[in-house]
Amino acid sequence: MTKLFGTDGIRGRVNEYPITAEVALRMGKAVAQVLRSEQPSRNRVILGKDTRISGYMLETALTSGLVSMGMEVLLVGPLPTPAVAHLTKSMGACAGIMITASHNPYEDNGIKIFGPDGFKLGDAIEALIERHILGHEPEPPPLHPRFIGKARRIDDARGRYIEFAKQTADNIPLHGIKLVLDCGNGAAYSIAPVIFKELGAEVITMATAPDGLNINADCGALHPERAGELVRQHQADLGISFDGDADRVIFTDASGNPVSGDRILGLCAIGLKEQDKLKHNTLVATIMSNLGLIEAMKENGIRVECTAVGDRNVIECMRENDYNFGGENSGHLIFGDYVTTGDGILSALQVLRLMLSRKATLAELATVMHEYPTHLENMPVASKPPLESLLKLQDLMKQATTEFGENGRFLIRYSGTEDKIRVLVEHREREQVSQWSARFTAVIKQEIG
Predict the structure, then answer these.
(1) Helices and strands, counts by H and E, the chain
(2) Is 357 a catalytic residue?
């Protein structure tokens, strides 16, 4: 069976299967059929998007599929993914749908689905929706015309999320703080500057003029050095860079230097623990997090629970074990007391609140850990054969495991959203990192091409 859902919804190149108007239409019908059967009394769906030009096409197709099944579609336009998740729960919808490909270029797009509780759907419901999309489940009889649904724009969606985001940080006054805000020409372009300005910060903005084609283009969370340049130029206190749908954030300190996601996770975990707000004194991270984070947390009496890659896995672990904070080195931060998914804007507010309460700069707070030298290689691949079938790579991995011992580690995996293989090497000695990275990539090129 064709697999549509990856680690973060459905994603791919626009106008190529599965990111086509036809599949989006079928998805709208499938979401309505499956989720309305779970919540018969609810027929409301929140539908948001980022700023990609293809969002218009997918929004229209999804809406058509949904209303044909009797759903009421509330169109909120360009909004961050976490805003759609929040509105889904607060407005009593049976589902929230976000049209986005996150950090990918404009040529790609994707669809994420949230349940009525604001969390991403579980595997079983995703699999059932997928079966309906692919025609492996019976088609429902067509509705009588009088029962067809409606779609309408929600004018106050932005205001609802703005007030929610500020309240999570207790409307902390940011007077005297100067910050650079890089919105990546994405979903946060209009809403993020308003939030930080209303709280009193002096805000220098960049990448807030989306044209449908420039999302993530040399800006945003993948290029924090751009915000860093403006931080130095304007002598700002920090830089804040969002990805295309603003569920991730990367920071730069007052010197314009990017601060790793692991350092942000560490300083936030310590801050929560000091306030007696870190449940079970546990931070949830992924296997991609630096070994230095685990060591630093241990020194501060904080346990680290590691999951597979993906914010969804982090969130599932948090829910299952009653943890309230976790995230990824890539910039996903999940403050579980407030949100059901990664939220770049809320995370930035929490970091600013910590800076003010500690009367410390971001650079000072970020000294919480010593990072092992690391290198991550993202290699394009034409195919994804099982890693177990790559015999030369397996032999090299066994050799590395023996030689590294407790001084380092490596992680080799395929991307769940792109045609790439990711090779992470970490070691106490920088020379070992570069040496083993080169050896792994050479063998992969030899066996995969």
Answers:
(1) 14, 18
(2) no
Torsion over CA: 254, 259, 261, 265 (sign): negative
Q: What domains lie within the chain, and their CATH numbers? A: 10-155 (3.40.120.10), 160-256 (3.40.120.10), 259-368 (3.40.120.10), 374-448 (3.30.310.50)
**Helix ranges, 335-429 (H):** 344-358, 362-365, 391-404
pTM: 0.90
Instruction: Judge contact between 377 and 422, C-beta under 8 A.
Output: yes
- Given a contact cutoff of 8 angstroms between Cβ atoms, the answer to whether 422 and 328 are in contact is no
**Residue reference for tokens 């976490």:** 82
Contact criterion met (CB below 8 Å) for 88 and 96: yes
Tens digit of each residue's pLDDT (9 = 90 or more) over 370-428: 999 999 999 999 899 999 999 999 999 999 999 999 889 999 999 877 889 999 999 99
The angle subtended at Cα 86 by Cα 90 and Cα 284, nearest 5°, is 130
Cβ(368)–Cβ(427) under 8 Å? no
- 420 strand-pairing partners: 380
How many CB atoms are located within 10 Å of the residue 392 CB?
A: 12
pLDDT score at 66? 97
Concatenated DSSP letters for 218-273? T-GGG-HHHHHHHHHHHT-SEEEEE-TTSS-EEEE-TTS-EE-HHHHHHHHHHHHH
- Active-site residue, selected from the candidate residues 37, 90, 102, 241: 102
CA atoms 20, 119, 245, 93: torsion sign: positive
Q: Which of 11, 201, 42, 197 is nearest to 109 (CA)?
A: 11
Q: Tell me whether strands 151-153 and 238-242 are parallel, antiparallel or unpaired.
A: unpaired
Contact (CB, 8 A) for 370 and 419? no
d(CA 174, CA 91): 29
Residue-wise pLDDT tens digits, 113-166: 999 999 999 899 999 999 999 999 998 888 999 999 999 999 899 999 999 999
